[in-house]
Amino acid sequence: MCGIISYCGTSDAVPILLDGLSKLEYRGYDSAGISILSENQSPLTIKTTGKVQELRNKVATLAPKHAHCGIGHTRWATHGQVSEINAHPHTSGFVTLIHNGIIENYHEIALKLAEQGKYPVSQTDSEIAAMLISHNYDGDPIKAIKRSCEELEGTYAFCILFADHPSEIYCVRNASPLVAVSTETGSYIASDMTALIEYSKDYFIVPEQHIAKLTKTGIKLLTLEGESKEPQMLHASWDAKSAKKNGYPHFMLKEIHEQPNSLLTTVMPRLKDMNISFLEEQIPDSLFSDFTRIVITACGTAMNAGLVGKVLMEKLLRIPVAVETASEFRYGDPILDERTLVIVISQSGETADTLAALRLAKERGAKTLAIVNVKGSSIARESEYVLYTHAGPEIAVASTKAFTVQMSALYLICGKIGIIRNLFSETFKSSFLQGLLNLPKLVEETLLLEPHIKEITHMLTDVQDSFFIGRGLDYALACEGSLKLKEVSYIHSESYMAGELKHGSIALITDKVPVVAITTNEETFPKMVSNIREVKARGSNIILITDQDISTCADIAEAQIPLPKTDALFTPFTVSIAVQLLSYYASVHRGLDVDQPRNLAKSVTVE
Ligand code: M6R
User: Fold this and answer.
1) What's the pTM?
2) pLDDT tens for each residue of 406-424
3) In 114-153, which positions are buried (b, 16+ CB within 10 angstroms) versus exposed (e)?
4) Ligand 1: residues within 6 Å at CB?
């Protein structure tokens, strides 16, 4: 939530900041701004509402002089409406800063500052932070930052310019992410590596409550007391090409098409000698041998992957699995102990609610295993064990490839538990592993349906409401399909257990409310056909997603997405592709901003 970038070096800072902001725009895009600092001059701030392109236009008109030091921000509003005055950077006295996060005690600090006649001009918590640091500043940036951090509560990543230290940028963080890269041409810091990957693949994550001081010659990592610390270097396994559209019209479509490969890179390295191995990630077999229940917690799409995991694990392992929305987890006083395995799932590894859920699980003595895509992210670092998904950067706000690799990781975990606990016959084990091996091919085959799905999506172009229905695994996919559709097409959509509809919500069905019915399970197919007939009788147009033979009931759907046939356990991977393409083309047909839907941000770092 909010993207930040800073640069100090020998090149011109302005294009570096603007290019970085374009790459970070998926983190928030309601306003943007930069501040640049040249020797013997006070910082020049240029900001505007709207997207980074608006900022580029404004910068082009003002044509600022070359500067070698600067900070840039793209905002997702939390405190105060979208306006130029609320856009970052914010200045107070010698201090100009950008902020990602939320200052929870900003009101108390504002009152304290008001007693001294200091008032903000914006409605933001971030300006209060700038005022506090300025208030604590006596010429020593480190001291001012330390004193301020002692007072600030909440989450923050700050990049701070001090007007009387023109060739330096000071950065500090608490919970919100900051990654740093140093090259011959200068020092860079940003919210994530997508903005920096073209400069270097070697980076470090600024530890919480530490200061990174950027100068032309490099980055110094310091404690809040000013003592030097050695950064822990990491290496990105992807490159700049992965963060570009590569000829696709949108990142979402590119990422949908990347799924065969991301499944291959996530699953293959873990399948060894007809077994599942987590040796590389140093997850001991003992982790899987003695817990009595599993709790999966996550948000949004990641939580929907958890719903698939629950159905799968309860069926194959006969272990109780609860799926908890991370934003509710803490407040529900969850029952956790050392016999509980808590699996947290997060693409970004920075979702504030999921991080809070993980911390609570640890506090209560549960074992924790995180499924994370972003290497070195907060959730990955704080979880006892991590199983990384290898999807590469996911830029579109709507999650697609992250979802299928999260599911594949849950399948791997399920398989591992089944094998360790001797729950699988040899025949089942080998067909399960074969199913996993086959995933890239299966998804590739499903992608061939794209032209057909594009065509039938016209059924959704002019509607306002819709339903997704299914049973069992198909219900979990109905949840994901419905979320995806509303997120990118702004069509109101509800996901429902097919059998439950008649207990109230069927009242909403009319000829203006299409129903996407997902039915891949042979056992429940006849029941699903009845449920579909019930809504059809009320005028609804049906889009049927199925791998079943519908020759005896061909009249139940206005359109059908005929999935490739696969083992019933693996249908979530074919259905995912269908609902992703359906949502993508609904957005395209409606002429919307597919990759950056309104009101959203990729990484939700506020609770
Ligand atoms: O980074 P995370 O996986 O923790 O993000 C969780 C959700 O915010 C995310 O899945 C969100 O629901 C997606 N935008 C949906 O497409």
Assistant:
1) 0.85
2) 999 999 999 999 999 999 9
3) eeeebebebebbbbbbbbbbbbbbeeebbebbbbbbebbe
4) 299-302, 346-348, 351, 354, 397-399, 483, 487, 603-604
